[in-house]
Amino acid sequence: MATLQQYAVVLIIIVAVIEVFVIGIVLFLLWKVANLQIKYKKFMKGKEAKNLEEIVLGCIEDVNTFKQKQSEMSERIDKNKNELAEKIEKEQKKLDSHSEKVISELNGTFQKMALTKYDAFGENGGKLSFSLCMLNEKNSGFILTSIHSKEGCYNYIKEIIDKNPIIILSEDEKEVLNQALGNK
To answer: What pLDDT does 156 receive?
Structure first.
């Protein structure tokens, strides 16, 4: 019998704990309802249903106005974006045209050059003789040779067309042509 009484006591304690827990939940819910009632009263204080309808309609009107302005701004942005793209394209065409003109002008200029100084006759004169080679992009141009001796100074120009000389070159001139061609 003692065990039956022990089970009854344990059962009563469990029921009591559950009742306390349920009472706690009920009190918490009552507190939440009271807070909601206070908030509701503050919200409704001094307002009638007609005023609330005006407020809601005003909010809807504000949203519609905002959507209209947003649409207008999007249209302006698209228009400005298109105008800017056209201007950029126009300027790019000008730059391309100018670049082509500059490149075509550069093709006719001397772009490859080499200079070698030497003592033409071994007279220990301080290497006063020289050969200067100037070629364009198509490897055409000239070699200017100046030979200095005791009797005087002699200058020669030999034409180069597509890497090939028109007149036979001296060893010093061949060397300067190879330097200009990058063959060294």
So the answer is: 93
